Amino acid sequence: MENLTKQQLTLSRIQLIADISQTAQCNPKEFLVVMSLISELAGQALTGEDQDALCYHGSPDEAH
């Protein structure tokens, strides 16, 4: 449950950063900083299992 709360907090922060950057109409350099922040936060929120699940596009029940 604690992991879910941490992910929710991180996603809220990512959304806030993205929303502010859209309304502020950042210049290209500021936009790169914003994308770096979002990437860093997302990377901290995802566990190894989460990243593996994102790379796998099928379900475990499907035959290959």
Description:
- The protein is mainly α and 64 residues long.
- 77% of the residues lie in helices and 0% in strands.
- The chain is built from three helices and no strands.
- The radius of gyration is 15 Å and the shape is elongated.
- The mean pLDDT is 78.
What are the main properties of this structure?
3 helices; mainly alpha; 77% helix; elongated; 64 residues
Query: Could you give the count of β-strands?
Result: 0
Question: How many whole angstroms does the radius of gyration measure?
Answer: 15 Å
What helical percentage do the residues reach? over 70%
Outline the biggest β-sheet. none
Which class best fits the helix and strand makeup?
A: mainly alpha
Tally of DSSP helical segments:
3
| Mean pLDDT over all positions | 78
Portion of residues in beta strands equals: under 5%
Order of SSEs: HHH
Q: Which residues sit in consecutive blocks of at least 5 with pLDDT less than 50? A: none
Give the overall silhouette.
elongated
What is this structure's SSE topology?
Elements: H1 2-24, H2 28-45, H3 48-55
Helix pairs in contact: 1-2
